[in-house]
């Protein structure tokens, strides 16, 4: 009785396809999780565990998500999922920031388009439009976040515009009112004349801007030194429009100054011969060059401190600017640019304001909120500051006060929303003091108690807190939480009354913040206060105060969370944003930070390192990437790059991540395919495992420890790198490569195969769990392929607890050295293959020279099995000169290259059957040639190449010595033009072979094998898959119609498969695709496509 060939080969079986189809699969899994109510199941499962709370920094509720959102939310999800699988209760509650200028600006655009004034719209009506706009985008963004695979309480997120949230924000403000840290003051703040409001530093962007520059003469009218009489102090500024607001000049007390007489000047410049000017000594040469002064005589040299008491005249004296301009010492005056003097406009600069206030100088009001000079400003009333520079310059020239003018390109603050330049403007605002109540000191101490990832975040945040001014928390807008303050008209102090605050918060909790704008003052003031004695403030709070208060109405109010948060995680810009405002708010009200740790990521740049933007044409939306590639590719990108730096993103990045994903997926597919039918009874205990399997288990144990360690440091990039390298270098390129023959060909009950399958079972269980936080969809798909069921999910599992007995450092060291030996042998094999001296490694018999250390390591191992060669000879001692070595593996060489001798490959033929088949096919008009002998040597003159060698070495492995085993090779010309038979001819040829075999009157069993790759050279996956589909469905019409021109790219080897299909016609056997693997070797798409299948 002949042997059934199919029963001797265990080909992989799995429905886990090589082609992921993530774009279609992921929505199905999302529906499954929703049906399973995975979030609720996780909460129930983890009740009572240690909590890990990542508090969500609220994104702004306007517009679709961009790639920065994807980076941020995916990284958060990886953190939350990994902490959950590490055994904690990691509950994630998403949130949205809803108030503020961006939304208000969008609603205003509607009114501007209709040529309507939004200020004429009732404030509550306008605020409702803003609320509706935010709610609309929350719904859209929620679905976009969920599509990324983000798990959280999406049914109950937090928003800053719920009535309860608005009420709590007001309570938080009330704490600053009551502790005296909130005060009203007039200070210069960054002001947008477009949006007509003050802006916080976090709302400011810096862009290159070209400004007018002027050198202005301030005549000395009262000199502290006689040498200064008749001279002019020269200032330099990049904001000519601030000259009307000038009230003083600052100098450096420690610097050296000089008085010069101009002896020569360029004719086209404003400087004139005979003028006397005062500038800083270190800047004389610079001033002369800037102002076209070609000759000057030094009249006096003195220290800046000697300027004390000097008075100058405003350059517009005689035109209603009759006040004196004093010279004042300022420690902020620098000697690196300008003239060494700084003109002080106290209404338009922080230093200017502080120095002027300290010296009793009144701060003038010169510019309104709309950017126009007030009517009382001489010469410039009603002119917009952005158009005033030339008017100021012309007036200075007319007053003979201009020494020079020019332009400069420099970094200048702009509104992040309107992109318009900002101005400093002195306005009454509400501030939280940084020093009253020791807020600065408390915040700095809290920073030292916080963990930062990366550690540089601590330095950055500390530097900002150390130098920041008082926090301006007021905005002159409509959409936000109101500053719920009544000011005593007599004292100017805010009313501090807990009962009033309670009435305010109760009303807002019931009706929303609109209650502040619609209610009469007496509703809140109650019977104890006369409304006529108080001013009700109409400003709203800085939105950073809103988001900075989220810890109070999310972490403290929800029973399923806890305060403080375990972690805040945002982009690095949030050191001056959410991290910053949350720190100040919490330290001011609770005395510590609202977080234990802060993790930051960088900004996404394009592949050239440029900022991504729609206008720049270099942006990619996450929605487009998901539709094409799936969310798991984005998730892999997040951890596959160093997110603490500035990650790059673009088409090439996606391609690279797709390639990485394919390698991981192929590993999972191999594991699943070779674990088909595996059960507990097949498992082997550790003591019965071969060394190679025990080495793999050691590596799993080491990886498990690494994942816990790196996860504790939130270094998911390291986790990805090590898991990827484990799959590609240690599994695919080493362990699985060695054990393939065992898995395919050993007896089912052999110890070696059971050990290998037991190891694969452990690998799969670990790998899928470890990958679950990163590739949440793919891990679930793989898990369900082995553990089907409506109630199961990999995300309900925890990281595996691996036996300490698996850890074997000594064994690991030994096998690392064996891998080095193998790497040298593999390098030699590749060289021989490139020279076409061998095809398969099984055609090789290497001779390996080892030093004593490596020889001791290799003793007792099956070197041919490790090298995957027909045999191997190991020698101890130095190799002959010129043998193959690798520089980084001294002590190992490969010499005396030898091929497997021909006598090892002798096969019994089937001459009688062969003659019968030949007679039959010739009778049907097929031309055949006959040979009594051939070699399977690729380069032999009478050989037919490595394709038959693959059949011989792989499929016949254990059957070569079977009694009565015979082989009938049939060779189709699928390579040499122009005599290749077309597909339809190969199909008919195969049918005639099958008919001849069935007509043969003999008691035999015949196995049909077809060998050949699919598309070669240039891989054409669509063509390959179309032909595979036709073979699978026995679609002869498609095969007969396929143009022969399609067979010229290397795909012609498929003709062997088509002939086999024809030979099996009428047998009732169906074709089953086992695997199709396109192996790309270049960006041009070249390579080889491999396919495996069987008829059963």
Primary descriptors:
elongated, 30 strands, disordered N terminus, 33 helices, 1096 residues, alpha+beta, 39% helix, ten-stranded mixed β-sheet
**Overall radius of gyration:** 40 Å
Find the count of extended strands (DSSP E, 2+ residues): 30
For the sheet with most strands, the description reads: 10 strands, mixed
**SS summary, helix count:** 33
Estimate the global geometry from the Cα principal axes. elongated
Helix fraction by DSSP (H/I, runs of at least 4): 25-40%
**Poorly predicted ranges:** 1-6, 938-944
Oligomer: single chain
Explain what this protein looks like in three dimensions.
This protein is α+β, with helices and mostly antiparallel strands. The protein contains 33 helices and 30 strands. Strands 6, 7, 8, 9, 10, 11, 12, 13, 14 and 15 form a 10-stranded mixed β-sheet that branches. A hairpin with a 5-residue loop joins strand 29 (1071-1080) and strand 30. Helix 3 (67-85) crosses helix 19, helix 20 crosses helix 22 (716-745) and helix 30 (983-999) packs parallel to helix 33 (1054-1063). It starts with 21 loop residues before the first helix and ends with a strand.
Summarize it:
By secondary structure, the protein is an alpha+beta fold.
């Amino acid at each position: 009785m002949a042997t059934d060939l199919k029963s001797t080969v265990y080909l992989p079986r799995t429905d886990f396809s090589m082609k992921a189809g993530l774009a279609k699969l992921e929505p199905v899994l999302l529906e499954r999780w929703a049906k399973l109510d995975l979030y609720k199941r996780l909460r129930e499962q983890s009740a009572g565990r240690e909590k890990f709370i990542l508090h969500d920094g609220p994104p702004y509720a306007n517009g679709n998500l961009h790639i920065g959102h994807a980076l941020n939310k995916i990284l958060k999800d990886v953190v939350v999922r990994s902490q959950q699988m590490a055994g904690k209760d990691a509950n994630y509650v998403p949130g949205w920031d809803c108030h503020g200028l961006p939304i208000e600006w969008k609603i205003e655009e509607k009114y501007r388009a209709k040529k309507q004034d939004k200020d004429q719209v009732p404030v509550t009506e306008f605020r409702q439009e803003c609320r509706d706009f935010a709610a609309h985008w929350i719904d859209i963004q929620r679905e976009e976040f969920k599509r990324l695979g983000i798990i959280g309480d999406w049914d109950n997120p937090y928003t800053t515009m719920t009535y309860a949230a608005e009420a709590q924000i007001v309570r938080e403000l009330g704490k600053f009112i009551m502790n005296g840290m909130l005060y009203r003051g007039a200070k210069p703040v960054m002001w947008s004349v477009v949006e007509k409001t003050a802006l916080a530093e976090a709302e400011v962007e810096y862009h290159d801007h070209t400004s007018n520059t002027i050198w202005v003469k301030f005549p000395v009218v009262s000199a502290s030194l006689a040498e200064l009489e008749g001279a002019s102090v020269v200032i330099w500024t990049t904001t000519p429009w601030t000259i009307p607001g000038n009230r003083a000049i600052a100098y450096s007390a420690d610097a050296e100054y000089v008085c010069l007489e101009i002896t020569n000047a360029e004719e086209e410049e404003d400087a004139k011969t005979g003028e006397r000017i005062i500038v800083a000594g270190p800047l004389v040469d610079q001033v002369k060059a800037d102002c076209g002064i070609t000759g000057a005589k030094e009249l006096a040299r003195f220290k800046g401190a000697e300027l004390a008491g000097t008075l100058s005249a405003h350059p517009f004296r005689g035109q209603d600017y009759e006040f004196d301009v004093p010279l004042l010492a300022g420690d902020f005056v620098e000697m690196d640019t300008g003239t060494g003097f700084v003109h002080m406009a106290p209404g338009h600069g922080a230093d200017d304001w502080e120095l002027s206030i300290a010296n009793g100088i009144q701060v003038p009001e010169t510019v309104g909120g709309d950017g126009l000079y007030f009517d009382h400003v001489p010469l410039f009333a009603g002119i917009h500051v952005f158009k005033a520079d030339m008017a100021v310059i012309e007036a200075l020239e007319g007053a003979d006060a201009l020494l020079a003018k020019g332009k400069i390109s420099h970094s200048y603050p702009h509104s992040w929303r309107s992109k318009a330049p900002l101005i400093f403007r002195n306005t009454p605002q509400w501030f939280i003091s940084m020093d009253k109540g020791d807020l600065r000191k408390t915040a700095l101490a809290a920073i030292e108690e916080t963990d930062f990832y990366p550690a540089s975040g601590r330095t950055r945040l500390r530097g900002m807190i150390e130098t920041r001014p008082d926090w301006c928390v007021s905005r002159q807008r409509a959409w936000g939480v109101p500053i719920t303050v009544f000011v005593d008209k007599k004292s100017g102090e805010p009313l501090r009354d807990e009962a009033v605050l309670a009435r305010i918060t109760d009303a807002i909790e019931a009706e929303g913040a609109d209650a502040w704008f619609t209610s009469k003052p007496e509703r809140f003031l109650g019977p104890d206060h006369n409304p006529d004695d108080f001013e009700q403030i109409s400003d709203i709070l800085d939105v950073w105060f809103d988001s900075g208060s989220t810890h109070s109405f999310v972490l403290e109010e929800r029973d399923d969370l806890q305060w403080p948060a375990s972690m805040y995680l945002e982009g690095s810009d949030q050191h001056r944003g959410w991290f910053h405002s949350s720190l100040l708010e919490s330290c001011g009200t609770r005395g510590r930070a609202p977080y234990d740790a802060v993790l930051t990521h960088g900004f996404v740049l394009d592949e050239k390192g440029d900022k991504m933007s729609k206008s720049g044409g270099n942006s990619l939306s996450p929605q487009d990437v998901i539709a094409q590639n799936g969310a798991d590719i984005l998730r892999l990108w997040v951890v596959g790059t160093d997110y603490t730096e500035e990650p790059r993103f673009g088409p090439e990045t996606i391609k690279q991540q797709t390639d990485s994903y394919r390698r991981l997926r192929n590993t999972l597919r191999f594991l699943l395919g070779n674990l088909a039918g595996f059960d507990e009874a097949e498992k082997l205990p550790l003591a019965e495992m071969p060394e190679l399997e025990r080495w793999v288990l050691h590596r799993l144990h080491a990886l498990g420890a690494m994942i816990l360690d790196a996860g504790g440091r939130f270094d998911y990039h390291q986790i990805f790198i090590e898991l990827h390298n484990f799959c590609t270098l240690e599994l695919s390129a080493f362990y699985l490569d060695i054990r393939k023959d065992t898995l395919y060909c050993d007896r089912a009950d052999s110890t070696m195969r059971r050990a290998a399958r037991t190891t694969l079972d452990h690998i799969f269980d670990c790998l899928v769990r470890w990958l679950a936080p990163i590739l949440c969809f793919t891990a679930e798909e793989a898990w369900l392929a082995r553990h089907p069921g409506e109630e199961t999910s990999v995300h309900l599992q925890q990281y595996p607890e691996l036996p300490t007995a698996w850890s074997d450092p000594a064994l690991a060291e030994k096998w690392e050295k064996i891998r080095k030996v193998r790497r040298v042998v593999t390098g030699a094999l590749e060289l021989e293959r490139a020279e076409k001296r061998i095809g398969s490694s099984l055609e090789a018999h290497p001779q390996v020279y080892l030093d004593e250390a490596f020889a001791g390591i290799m003793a007792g191992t099956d070197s041919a099995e490790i090298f995957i060669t027909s045999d191997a000879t190991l020698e101890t001692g130095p190799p002959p000169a010129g043998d193959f070595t690798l520089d980084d593996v001294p002590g190992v060489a490969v010499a005396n290259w030898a091929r497997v001798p021909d006598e090892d490959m002798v096969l019994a033929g089937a001459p009688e059957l062969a003659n019968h088949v030949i007679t039959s096919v010739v009778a049907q008009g097929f031309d055949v040639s006959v040979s009594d002998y051939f070699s399977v040597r690729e380069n032999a003159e009478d050989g037919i190449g490595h394709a038959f060698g693959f059949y011989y070495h792989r499929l016949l492995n254990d059957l070569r010595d079977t009694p009565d085993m015979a082989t009938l090779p049939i060779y189709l010309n699928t390579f040499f033009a122009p005599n290749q038979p077309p597909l339809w001819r190969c199909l008919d040829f195969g049918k005639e072979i099958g008919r001849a075999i069935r007509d043969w009157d003999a008691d035999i069993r015949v196995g049909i094998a077809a060998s050949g790759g699919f598309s070669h050279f240039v891989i054409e996956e669509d063509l390959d898959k179309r032909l595979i589909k036709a073979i699978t469905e026995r679609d002869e019409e498609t095969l007969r119609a396929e143009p022969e021109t399609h067979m010229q790219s290397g795909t012609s080897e498929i003709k062997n498969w088509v002939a086999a299909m024809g030979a099996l016609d009428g047998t009732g056997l169906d074709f089953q695709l086992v695997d199709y693997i396109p192996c790309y070797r270049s960006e041009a798409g070249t390579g080889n496509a491999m396919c495996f299948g069987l008829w059963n």
